[in-house]
Amino acid sequence: IRMTETTDKEKKPPLNGRRALPLNNSNDEENEVPEMEAFGLIPRGFNPKDYLRVVDIHMFKEPHEINKQQHHTDKYYNPKLIIRRGQSFQIQIDFNRPYKPETDQFWLEYLIGRYPQQNKGTYIPILVREVLKPGEWGAKITHKENNSIRLSIMSSATCIIGKFRLYVAVWTPFGILRTHRNSATDTYILFNPWCQQDAVYLDDESEREEYVLNDVGIVFHGNINDIKLRSWSYGQFEENILDACLFLMDKAELELSGRGNPIKICRVASAVINSRDDNGVIAGSWDNTYTYGVPPSAWTGSVDILLEYYSSKQPVRYGQCWVFAGVFNTFLRCLGIPARLITNYSSAHDNNANLQLDFFLDDEGKVDTKLTKDSVWNYHCWNEAWMTRPDLPVGFGGWQVVDGTPQETSDGMYRCGPASVQAIKHGHVCFQFDAPFVYAEVNSDIVYLRREKNGTQVIENIDTNHIGQLIVTKEVGRDGMMEITEEYKFQEGSEEERLALETAVMYGVKKQTLQDTSYQPQADVDMEFHAQKAVLGSDFKVTITFRNKSGNSYTATTYLSGNIVFYTGVTKNEFKKHSFSAKLEPYSSSTYDVVIKSSEYLSDLLDQASFHFFVTARINETGKILAIQKATVLEIPALRIKTQGEMVAGKEMSVTVEFTNPLKQTLENVTLRLEGPGVLRTMKKEFRQIPTNSTLIWEVKCIPIRPGLRKLIASLNCDALRHVYGELNVQIQKP
Q1: Are 598 and 654 in the same domain?
Q2: pLDDT tens digit sequence for 272-308
Q3: Is 253 annotated to bind ligand?
Q4: Is 497 annotated as a binding residue?
Q5: 55 located within any domain
Q6: Domain extent at residue 569
Q7: What pTM did the predictor assign?
Q8: Annotated catalytic residue: which of 321, 334, 381, 416?
Q9: Is 380 a catalytic residue?
């Protein structure tokens, strides 16, 4: 027993100064759960056998049994119970004697990952109730017979996706008795497109059959004048594929608590499907040399790729766009997110997102490959995943573009999406993620330029119809081709198309206006936005400045929207709305201040204190719109670390941590942590309260072990304030 204890200690990941618990981003790791959790001293006569005891648990997990049938999971080649969230399932518990509800008390516990916490959804206690509420965790007894009870269990419609461990806990006066760890009762919980409360709910049964349950599909390739098709085996139900797909989220280090959110899952998966920057699943190669690997065209499906990656943990060589898309489709369908593979013929790869592919011609009219950086792909495959978008305004849910092919970086990684197809069609490319890039893929113009000897560029030709001529996917329930071009764009040359383009341009898609006089911005008025630097907890002001460079008087109806955003840019809510009318006198500047009070933002503030402001102004006289957006982050106050006395290895030294509360409220239940590898073991201290403006001082004595340059790291955490850190480099002398 001693042995196992020490190895367990070594396996614990190191804590860091940012969080009380290490990241919980592995579905594979487990914690140990005590079978007897005593409330105090156990009296000598206590015998667990006197109490209600679980003899057996029946999961009804065979493919032909009720659970897998009702949950559409009977195809998975996996012996364990697989259910979909937000829908009830049945289990049976056999006790050592009949269950007496008056005196016996038991509950179920579902756990996932290594550090289960109830508020993160990784530890789920389920109590027995009279009624089940739809889409919320609960259990009710449907049948009692002899020593057995039948339970109907409802899972939450927002539950984490992954593999949970099940325990049954029985209450006794002296402690809690639990069943021991039994992997046979492990339960996989997946997305549920059949459940109205699930973010991936899809209302058409034939579409669910195709986009979730069909494990083969068709890839359209070739080019616009010569469309070719091939089948692809998705194999989402094959042995070990579900585990391999869950492993991808571990590999992407997606925190378990984020795994109920299809937006987050798609975003991280689009990065981990390719091997660029994260050693993901498939290494791409477009140069026709496939040494030491399988040529992309040789793959017939996703299963071999996923299984090889799952066992070797190394990128599988090689893939091109349809391989990335095929594997991504398997991943999405396997987890229960409706998904389809899309082909865009004549797809623009626009390096600088200016909605324009610049092709430079030499004197003979040939394309100069040295100067030409943009490219048109004969076809490009990506995926669409179906989900609601609560992070966007109403109307942008439904199909979302996700793309695992490494083309351009997004937020510093090779990934793309999810981007709302509806937003792309209407030009609302301000909405995350990567909508401008996808918009350019289907809407760019090709501009042919010739360089004169003196260096000027002459436009020879503009082709507005070449890009994104045809966008297709497999038909539902049949193997034919379904055109979905009109989901992405209005009729070429129509009034709506023009409007969508203007909207996209307004929202920041760069378009060089060449011979294009129909789009004329309000050139004689500039609008600027500035946010005052502010410390968390204080009021601050934002300033909107107009500069009227013309001789005309204008009035501008101005609207300011302040949003609290996650540091990823996902909007949590709008906390400030302010509109006013601005008078713009000729040849002059006018400035308008808006005060943001701490009381307006503190209650909803997210832990990284990020805001996003959006300002739009309509010049009433011309109808033109000015728009500007700015993200701003509040300064989070730091901890101060000091040392006293000499710092010598083997000798006691003293470290103090200080912090002054900047908020207009008392901080409650504050946890401080201090660690310094080689100087002191991680230490923790709880403070009940820190009143406003008061300073906390924590002194710690320690004996440094290793000489040299070391780092002390401290963190402070409480509900009202997170991400408070301090650090100090210390030089420990040799004794």
Answers
A1: no
A2: 999 987 899 999 887 666 778 777 877 778 988 999 9
A3: no
A4: yes
A5: yes
A6: 525-633
A7: 0.68
A8: 321
A9: yes
